[in-house]
Design brief:
alpha/beta, 2 domains, 5-stranded parallel sheet, 14% strand, globular
Amino acid sequence: MLIIGLTGSIGMGKSATAGMFRARGIPVFDADQAVHDLYAGEAAPKVEVAFPGTMKDGRIDRQELGRRVLDNPKAMARLEAIVHPLVQAAEDAFLAAAAEAGSSVAVIEVPLLLESGIDDRCDLVTVVSAPAQTQRERVLARPGMDEQKFEAILARQMSDAQKRERAHVVIPTGEGFAVAEKAVDDLLRSVACMPGSAYANRLARS
């Protein structure tokens, strides 16, 4: 099974692009959704111990947690030490299920794939990209977002130019859905007969 890593900076269109892969029958693991699920489940009590007062009604209040960690590298590292192993376990279970189902290709959508240095868990790295002004407009239109928070998030992320340099494939998302969909179709055609080694390597390491 070949593993495609899907990443890109905030507001670049990862979720929409992931939907394009799903629409073509490709299983997609959404790391951000996995975190959401963990904050309402297994990770919630562990995060509450590390950051008292962030759990409300049995789940982590992401807004409150964000205020605690966004501009605090030590706090962020403490949070990541709790959450990252749980997300990886969920990802491993997803890939095992995809392999068992006979999928020849699977996608893992991870916002900080390159920043976290885990791109070696993929056979190909695909970066979604759009012009900076398009990105800014998309992000600032989100509820609860402002310039200060946007800049703080960008400061944690590798620049779009750096990501594009490290990508095997770049999917443009600022030119309309048709262009992005064609790029997804082109990618899937190009990997149709390509053997993947990343999944086998994971199994060997486990």
